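1st attempt posting a full record on here, be nice pls
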Amino acid sequence: MVLLNIGRVHHELGDHDASRLAFEEARASFEEVGFRSHVAYALQGLAAADASEKRFGQAARLLGRARRELDDVGSSERGSAPAMVSWVTAQAQGALGHEAFDAAYAAGREGG
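the predicted structure (as tokens):
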């Protein structure tokens, strides 16, 4: 959980490399112990890092993948940082347009 918080703080400070590192380490740790909802939260953080670096298609796919993880464990939660998820969604939709965002998001949900 600390790594998720560290990742969010680095994201807020604009240190995208450190943010990505913290979220990636969190994702790997949560996968190792099988905390799938927390894997989803780390994926949302990685999506924020991608959106910050203008990789909007990848950000949308990661959001879709995170949603798949949350759906698989029966969580209706939007994530551990809903404001960050909303920001990523707005940035990616604004850059890609709704149709391309929806296609990338769907690809992430389907495992792509």
